[in-house]
Amino acid sequence: MTKQTKQQGSSADRVLIFDTTLRDGEQSPGASMTLGEKLRVAELLDTMGVDIIEAGFPIASNGDFESVTEVAKLVGNAQVCGLARAGEKDIDRAGEALKHAKNPRIHTFISTSPVHMKHKLQMEPDEVMEAVAFSVTRARKYTDNVEWSPEDATRTDPDFLCAVVETAIKAGATTVNIPDTVGYTMPQEYFETVTMLRNRVPNIDKAVISTHCHNDLGLAVANSLAGVQAGARQIECTINGIGERAGNAALEEIVMAMNVRSDLMAQWTNIETTMLARASKLVSSVTAFPVQYNKAIVGQNAFAHESGIHQDGMLKNNQTYEIMTPESVGISQSSLVMGKHSGRHAFREKINELGYELGDNQMQEAFVRFKDLADRKKHVFDDDIIALVDDEVAKGVDAVKLVSLRVISGSEGPQSADLVLEIHGEQHGVQSTGDGPVDATFNAIKALFEHDAVLQLYQVHAVTEGTDAQAEVSVRLEEGGKTVTGRGADTDTMVASARAYVSALNKLIIKRQKTAPDSDSAWSSVGRVSDAK
Ligand code: KIV
Ligand code: ZN
């Protein structure tokens, strides 16, 4: 694969990409991922050239602890980071989760704005100052790669901000991150904040300044770039911009802005841009967060030209309406791949070309499904294969399996579903009715495998064009405050729906087995320094 990264510039202009899809991204309601999904995302981020992967918040839950531990074991190139509040327990838990990482980073934070200190922490500024020194010093016991953040920095008193940053660096922080936690700042103001820190903090040259911008006013990317122009050399961002509320700065937009406008920005990143579309698809698929059609860089319409004038211009020269090529971000014109006569060898090559590595069993199952699909569908495109393989990869050692489904629908109700499931190795069948075919299918699943989970989301999307397109269905279930997302693909929308529901159920069964003692309290209180010492 040819590197599409921008011509490398001077090392002083190199900007580190710190991806927090697995931490801040996963904090968006409904975006929770299973361990297996997090590992797939982490592997892709690592291959793509992300410098630091924030893999979770180890004190928040056993699941987060495990994901930081496993990502740390898996990742070969990137630094792996765990988040911790200012307390001793948080930092020790992060240190423990990172013990297998080749290059571990602890990211510790505490709020510094008046509103947060008063109402959230109920701490005086001098207590916060003490906590800063304490937490960074403690984190340095585990690694010399310590990042520190003043949460709500952009609403913090400037003198106090300079003082806490100086204290953190004196205690050993090697990166100081300046979060626009509530997405409040504007590009010029953020530029000035970073400039102020560079001018007024005497030891600032001992740390890398980082940006962390939320998108509440739609300015996260612009603010991050302004921070870089003022001297920040790390950007915190997420794939597709997912994250708390309106999200974080979108990695793909930041990277391509610097790449396309290298005439204005000398700064560069190490990201392999041809992997951006794939990363976007993977994160959208595992979270069931759709990418808006007109989303910059990775939206379905980002390179579509509808109006006659534009199409005419494009035919004459694509630079008339395109500032970057779709190929540069990994979007290939939908290619016809294979038909029912394609063999196992060609299929394996295609799978590898699409960036997957499957074990023998997964390959065999994917091949059987591909043959079945090619029998039913006239043209099989790359996107069909991706949907099918994603489905296979998402499967674990499933307690519940779909064996068969027959649905009767039509204008004369009630609609009914005849379903057979394999549950713990035994087949069970049932017929159920419902208000429509999807309802009948889901009622049948509930009748065979009783549960109290509530359906939060049911979403259908066509993988390609045409009436024989595969339907890709996402289902989100919620039980006791925990959410799981399942997906399924098939040319039959009801079969895809049943697969998605069953896949979510299997994840729920695994989740039930893992307890999460501190998860609900982790964000509602910030370990007071008094219990930290
Ligand atoms: O937005 C924020 O302030 C954060 C911090 C934990 C860095 O996510
Ligand atoms: Zn954040």
Please give a structural write-up.
The protein is 40% helix and 20% strand. It is of the alpha/beta class. It has 4 domains: 3-287, TIM Barrel, CATH 3.20.20.70; 299-331, no CATH class; 344-393, no CATH class; 400-529, Alpha-isopropylmalate synthase LeuA, regulatory domain (Double Stranded RNA Binding Domain, 2-Layer Sandwich). Strands 1-2-3-4-5-6-7-8 form an 8-stranded parallel barrel, surrounded by 7 helices. A 3-stranded antiparallel beta sheet has the order 11-12-13. A 3-stranded antiparallel beta sheet has the order 14-15-16. Helix 9 crosses helix 10 and helix 14 (360-376) packs across helix 15. The model is unreliable at 1-6 and 515-533 (pLDDT under 50). Bound molecules: 3-methyl-2-oxobutanoic acid and zinc ion (ZN).
Which helices and strands occur, and which strands form pairs?
Elements: E1 16-19, H1 21-25, H2 35-48, E2 52-56, H3 62-74, E3 79-84, H4 88-97, E4 104-111, H5 114-121, H6 125-140, E5 146-151, H7 158-171, E6 175-180, H8 187-200, E7 208-213, H9 220-229, E8 234-237, H10 251-260, H11 276-287, H12 308-316, E9 336-338, H13 344-353, H14 360-376, E10 380-381, H15 382-394, E11 400-408, E12 415-423, E13 426-434, H16 437-448, E14 454-462, E15 471-479, E16 482-490, H17 493-513, H18 529-532
3-methyl-2-oxobutanoic acid is lined by residues 24, 109, 149, 151, 177, 179, 181, 212, 214.
CATH architecture name of the largest domain:
Alpha-Beta Barrel
Largest sheet: 8 strands, parallel, barrel
Helix content: 25-40%
Radius of gyration, Cα only, in angstroms? 25 Å
- Supply the number of helical segments: 18
CATH class category label of the largest domain: Alpha Beta
**Average of per-residue pLDDT values:** 90
Using the coordinates shown, work out and report the CATH topology of the largest domain.
Answer: TIM Barrel
Based on secondary structure, the structural category is alpha/beta
- What overall geometry do the principal axes of the alpha carbons give? globular
CATH superfamily of the largest domain: Aldolase class I
- What ligands are attached or bound here? 3-methyl-2-oxobutanoic acid, zinc ion
Q: How many beta-strand runs? A: 16
Indicate how many domains the architecture comprises: 4
Separation, N- and C-terminal Cα atoms: 51 Å
Unreliable residue runs:
1-6, 515-533
Neighbour order of strands in the largest sheet: 1-2-3-4-5-6-7-8
The percent range for strand residues is 15-25%
